[in-house]
Design brief:
Blueprint lengths: L1 H62 L6 H22 L8 H9 L1 H36 L2 E4 L3 E4 L1 H29 L18
Antiparallel strand pairs: 1-2
Helix pairs in contact: 1-2, 1-5, 2-5, 3-4, 4-5
Length: 206
C-alpha cells in the first residue's frame, strides 16, 4: 500500500514538473517571437536611416537643399536600434564578449562553464536593471512634459518614442538574461544529465 502511494506521488511530481516545463517552453517561444519583432523594427529603422541619408545627400549635391532634421533623426534612430535589437542579440549569443575561457570550461568542465555563464547572465540582469531604473523616469518626464529633440523653428521631434524604445529594450533584455540565467543554473546543478529544457539561448538562430 505504501509503495502504491509513493508511486502516485512520484507520478504526480513528474506531471507537475512536465507541466512547468511545457509552460516555460511556451513562454520562451512566445518571448523569442517578441524579440524577433523588436529586431525587425530595429532593422526597419536602419533602412529608414539609409533612406533619409540618401535623400539628404542628394538634396545637398543636386539642389543645395539639405533635408532638415536628418542629423537628429539619425542620432535618435541609432540609439533606438541598439536597444530594440539587443534582446535578440543576447538570446542568440551574439552579445560581444570574450568567450575563450568559457569555451575551454564548456569543453572540459560543462557544469563549471555553465556556472560562469550563469554569473555572466546574472550580471546582465543587474546592469540592465539599473539602466531600466534610470530610463523609466526619463520616459515619464518626456511623455508628460512633451520634451523634444531638435531646433525649434527648424525641426523638432518628441523624445518619448525614443525613451519608450529604451525602456522596452531594457525590459526585454532583462527577461532574456533571466531566461538564460535559469537555463544555465539548471545545467550547473545537474550532475548526471545535460539540460534539455525548453529555455535555450537560441545561438544557432539566424
Amino acid at each position: 500500500m505504501m509503495g502504491d502511494v509513493s508511486k502516485v506521488r512520484v507520478m504526480h511530481d513528474v506531471k507537475a514538473d512536465g507541466g512547468k516545463m511545457v509552460a516555460a517552453g511556451a513562454f520562451s517561444a512566445a518571448f523569442g517571437q517578441f524579440t524577433r519583432v523588436l529586431n525587425a523594427v530595429g532593422t526597419s529603422l536602419i533602412f529608414l536611416i539609409m533612406v533619409f541619408a540618401m535623400v539628404d545627400i542628394t538634396g545637398r549635391i543636386l539642389l543645395n537643399t539639405p533635408l532638415a532634421g536628418v542629423p537628429e533623426l539619425v542620432t535618435m534612430s541609432i540609439v533606438g536600434v541598439v536597444f530594440l535589437q539587443l534582446p535578440h542579440a543576447v538570446g542568440c549569443g551574439r552579445l560581444v564578449r570574450s568567450d575563450m575561457l568559457i569555451g575551454i570550461l564548456n569543453a572540459g568542465a560543462p557544469r563549471t562553464g555553465a556556472a560562469f555563464e550563469a554569473l555572466f547572465n546574472f550580471i546582465g540582469v543587474a546592469v540592465f536593471g539599473a539602466v531600466l531604473l534610470g530610463a523609466v523616469p526619463h520616459f515619464l518626464d518626456a511623455y508628460r512634459h512633451g520634451y523634444e529633440f531638435g531646433t525649434p523653428g527648424v525641426f523638432v521631434f518628441p523624445q518619448w518614442p525614443l525613451r519608450l524604445a529604451i525602456v522596452i529594450g531594457c525590459a526585454a533584455t532583462i527577461v532574456q538574461f533571466a531566461l538564460l540565467l535559469s537555463s544555465k543554473l539548471r545545467l550547473a546543478v545537474s550532475p548526471t544529465r545535460r539540460l534539455a529544457g525548453p529555455i535555450t539561448d537560441r545561438r544557432n538562430e539566424s
